[in-house]
Amino acid sequence: MRSIPRLSGGEERMDRKTGSSFRIVFRHLLPELRPYIWAILFSLSITGLVISADLLQPLLFKQLLDAATLSMNYPVVIQCLLFLLGLVCVRSVLSYWEIFARSKVGESISAQLRRKTFEHVIHLPLPIFHEMEDSALVHRIMHDCGEVGRVYISSKLLPMIAQVIQVLALIGFLIALNWQVGLASLLVFPLGWLISRGVTHRSHAQVIRLRTLVERGHGMLQEIFSCIREVRAVGNEAGEMRRWDNWLQDYGRVISRTTTQHHFIRGTLSRLIDWIGLCVVFGWGGWQLLGHHMTVGTLLAMSLYVQQLYTTLSALLSGRLETIEVANALEAIQNILQRPREWPDQGQQALPAGDGHLEFEDISFSYQDTPTIKQVSFHSAPGQMTGIVGPTGSGKSTLMHLCLRFYPVAAGKILLDGQDIAEIAPHVLRQHIGLVSQDIQLWNTTIRENLLYGLQTEVPWERVIEVCQKTCVDAFVRHLPQEYETVVGSRGVKLSGGEKQRIALARALLRDPKILLLDEATSALDALTERAITNVLLQMGEKKNRLLVAHRLATVQSADQVIVIANGKIVEAGDPHSLYKQNGMYATLYHIQKLGEGVPPRS
Ligand SMILES: Nc1ncnc2c1ncn2[C@@H]1O[C@H](COP(=O)(O)OP(=O)(O)O)[C@@H](O)[C@H]1O
Ligand SMILES: [Mg+2]
Q1: Domains observed in the chain
Q2: Can you give the residue ranges of the ABC transmembrane type-1 domain (predicted)?
Q3: Among the ranges given (2-6, 193-197, 235-239, 240-244), the one the predictor scored with the smallest mean pLDDT
Q4: Is residue 156 within 8 Å of residue 164, measured between CB atoms?
Q5: Ligand nearest to the Cα of 564, by number
Q6: Considering only CA atoms, which of 13, 304, 325, 294 is closest in space to residue 143?
Q7: Ligand 1 within 6 A of CB of 393
């Protein structure tokens, strides 16, 4: 796989400058903005009208004052007042539509990004999910995508475009009214820019640190709540509280620094520049007023323009921090989007003709450097039941996962009806292989929905009940208050391990796959229920190819063949009876288990 930066965190982007942040934002955002170009133009044109109203207001005040002080023309004063009143009403209505249009664009872009990212993530290869924390992915989709659209587009970027135009217009008006005072009032701007640049520069690291911290906080909470039973069982509530307090302390420190800097630029700094600017206008303007080179109206209009100019400028400057933040968010999202999907659309879209003959040809595989599966070869035919036994960690589950192309094999081939599964599109392959995995995941919904999860075709309810009766699901579901409509809780927390296993088994059988992979699928069942289910698995034997990983040898007693795996290698293979006679590992396991069963109860 290509080397792509790590998905979580963002420390590597510490030294970014505002300029490069803008470039990143525009590079990544322009394609996202394209579909909304009309909505953006609509929003910007309303903003244009709002700005025009703001620009007109000081001119009306000027006219009003000049009419009152110079010519004492009261009808003009009344006209100006009425016009100002009308203007403020129109501006309020326009302003509502302006905010509405901007929010609409922002939310739409967030939704578009969230959709695109989720759609990509759900198709990423499994090893990527092992490599990164779930919370980092959740953070990307929920926080980062939201930040880009809602926070940035609607409250920063679109206003910024309008603000630049407004600033240029304001400068124009100031110079037009009195070029000397106008230019003098602009001299304050470089000072404000320099100060804000310094503050923003210092804030880079804070912004990145805050981002990493928030992500860590999410991850920690998610982990604690999902492991709440373990926390309770060992009584480590205080330990978790300490961990959380440490996080709160770190967060508090960073957030207070970042917020202070933020508000400093927004509030104190802009007020300072505002005041200096007003002093310049009133100082020099007052001087010109005394010399009759300026009217009272012009002085008032200029002071109003200067205030508008500095408010707009400080809003523009404060957008720098958000730009850095959004550039980081966009890069993190891009990091995910760059990752190649799971063998995208690669491979045949139909299974080869056959009943599900599976052949492992000298396959090897490793998760990291140490080999997990070493030159494993065996085959299992339709109608056969293959038992797979061996110590924990020997690679049994991995073998099951390789059949589903969760990971690509490093060497060798797995053939399905003579066709290398690496040449079959994964989603096609998986439709025909049913897996009941060791750690069963149920959705927090009803038993009925859990049973029907992912089914591509309609299954009549009678068929569902029939399968549930065979897999002993019906027996316990009938005792639940809402039967099949009972909600099972997060990850099936309201059910016992054995009940979950039975639902998972029924779910797999309902898919009617050619090949059934059962990874310790009956380990949590009592002996009687297990026997009943094993009988069902045996009965459906004429056509299906079944691979059964089991700890208890009794489970594989009736298998057609048993593969014994140790340390990723096949050490024995054959039918259970001949294996027993070989006096090897199978026989040893058999004796140990027999001995366990034979231990007399203590008196
Ligand atoms: N996602 C993974 N990343 C790295 N190593 C793994 C991963 N899953 C399993 N392993 C390792 O591979 C080996 C085989 O695991 P597994 O197939 O689950 O064994 P079994 O099912 O026989 O108990 C173990 O040593 C385990 O630690
Ligand atoms: Mg396992």
Answers
A1: 17-338 (1.20.1560.10), 358-597 (3.40.50.300)
A2: 41-318
A3: 2-6
A4: no
A5: 1
A6: 325
A7: yes
